Amino acid sequence: MSLMVLGTASHVGKSTVVAGICRALKNRGIGNAPFKSQNMSLNSWVTADGAEIGIAQAVQARAAGVEPTAEMNPVLLKPKGEMVSQVVLLGRPYKDVRIGEYYRETDELLETAVRAFTHLEEEHGTVVVEGAGGAAELNLYDRDIANIRLARALGLPILLVADIERGGVFAQAYGTIALLPEDIRPLVVGIIVNKFRGDPTLFASGVDALQEICGVPVLGVLPYTGIDLPSEDSLSIGDKSARSEGVRIAVVRLPHIANFTDFELLERRAAVTYVRPGDPLAGYDCVVIPGTKNTIDDLRLLRSSGAADEICRARAAGVPVIGICGGFQMLGRRLVDLGYEGDGPAEAEGLGLLDVTTTFSAYTKTTRQVHHRAVDVPPFLSRMGEVSGYEIHMGTTERGADGPAFGDDGAVSEDGLVIGTYLHGLFSDPDAVDALLGSLADRRGIEYRPAEDDGDPYDRLASLFEAHLDMGLVTALACGGEREGYLYEGRDQP
Fold first, then answer.
1. Dihedrals phi, psi of 438, to nearest 5 degrees
2. Residue 22 annotated as catalytic
3. Residue 11 is among the residues annotated as catalytic for this protein
4. Contacts of 452 (CB under 8 A, 6+ apart)
5. How far is Cα 39 from Cα 358, in angstroms, rounded to an integer?
């Protein structure tokens, strides 16, 4: 038996709840794996065999103690704008589709998802399934392969996550359950109240009220946690706030920003600000251009907004500039799309800060995990040593006079202040972060102290769940067993 975690809305914490349950089950000796049939996100991860999946499922796999695989996220949608998304099917680029065309393939995609789930359950025994967005989207019921149609196909017990921080938790939970189809409603066996701030005992009467109006037990009230896990999608970027002290880093907030999880460790150790294109860059110690799903479109926006001039002025003033993936491509002299990266053939002049040229000549994507040694070029790369990360990009980049930055990857200017790389996850490495921030602090004449290791975040998350969630019942549901007389067989709602 497995179980399903649905939410009352987007961003209520489903991904974190699944990660916490995965690690708690693992710590109880129960093998398990995560699963999300359909994910829409520009934050992705590359598995050991080169498959691309949503980063949330990679995080959950790490929590479960298993290797991420394509079956954990069989359908990944990567928005490209104008109601068009790239469909990544079982880890490989499938095609770019408009939303209407995508919906016509719902039946086939659901079959693919169910096969992937079945494979995971056969391999791992227990699967913790995450839904997408809100479960009670009435207009989507006929094509909702992440929630309703999947729940109908699998028949698993459902835990419903509601977010008390945003308010209206009673309406969230009651409204969602009341609006579920009649055959799905009885599968809801528990409610999890998430993101509670303060003393949870003060919500005891609220728990009673929720159980009374919903006819479903509340399995726990999870406190708001500062445990840092990678963000699933762009909804999280609005929650970010910069520290007020230390090294100041500007990350350009591109319209189609991808894999901004690259900078979340930097955010915890430096004052990182996501700067909108056109906002001034004066006063920052470093400027970062992140990855993007639409490189040429976002490059044009940098020019039209004045951001390109701001970046070049920062470089001229001696401020280091780092480009990751699409940001690396933008740092070059020229980008040539033969009709595969955007809507059609296009060319664009790059920022000209590195002597490289990028060409998009096929509908193929480089997806691989990599390990390199940083080149011995001061002031930053010479401090980094061995680094690891993963590549997810279309296009090929040819270097001119500038040499590589990491092994055979990327490029670096002669003075070492402009660095481009395809390595996502570079700054998820504490040593690479300390090398960059230590060097930037030295340049500014301030002190930088590397952060101490605060332990495994997944074990801390699991401990939180053990303390605030009825993990005995969750375990019984996940394993199809019985606890204190409760046996899940499906039931009618009172």
1. -65, -40
2. no
3. no
4. none
5. 29
Angle formed at CA 53 by CA 51 and CA 59, multiple of 5 degrees: 120
pLDDT digits (tens, 9 = 90+) for 97-108: 988 888 899 999
DSSP secondary structure letter of residue 404:
P
What six digits make up the tokens of 205?
Answer: 């009467």
* Closest alpha carbon to 34 in 75, 78, 2: 2
- Structure tokens that stand for 31 in this block: 């093998």
Residue 415 φ/ψ, nearest 5 degrees: -90, 0
* pLDDT score, position 80: 83
Structure tokens at 173: 């939970």
Residue of 22, 214, 286, 325 marked active site: 325
* Alpha-carbon torsion angle 174, 176, 179, 183, nearest 10: -100
Q: Shortest CA distance to 184 belongs to which of 176, 192, 174?
A: 176
SS (H, E, C) 334-360: EEEECCCCCCCCEEEECCCCCCEEEEE
Half-sphere exposure of 461 (CA within 13 A, CB side): 25
pLDDT at 242: 62
Helix, strand, or coil (residue 258): strand
Predicted pLDDT of residue 324: 97
> 126-130 and 3-7: which strand pairing?
parallel
| Amino acid symbol at 406 | F
The answer to whether 370 and 423 are in contact (CB under 8 A) is yes
Q: What whole-number distance in Å separates Cα of residue 95 and Cα of residue 343?
A: 13
Q: Of 11, 424, 468, 479, which is the active-site residue?
A: 424
* Domains contained in the chain, CATH given: 3-230+458-487 (3.40.50.300), 247-444 (3.40.50.880)
The CA-to-CA distance between both ends of the chain, in Å, stands at 25
Q: How many residues make up the chain in this entry? A: 494
> What pLDDT is attached to residue 449?
87
What gap in Å lies between CA 153 and CA 387, rounded to an integer?
Answer: 43
Tokens of 198: 């303060």
| Average pLDDT, consecutive stretches of 10 residues, N- to C-terminus, the chain (494 residues) | 94 94 97 96 93 95 97 94 88 90 92 98 97 94 95 97 93 97 96 92 93 96 80 54 79 92 90 94 96 93 96 97 97 93 86 97 93 96 95 95 96 97 94 94 91 82 95 91 45 33
For 400-415, write each residue's pLDDT tens digit: 999 999 999 999 999 9
Residue 74 contacts residue 89 (beta carbons within 8 Å): yes
The answer to whether 20 touches 475, Cβ cutoff 8 Å, is no
C-beta separation of 177 from 185 below 8 A = yes
Non-local CB neighbours of 381 within 8 Å, separated by 6+ positions? 374, 375, 405, 406, 412, 416, 419
pLDDT of residue 243: 63
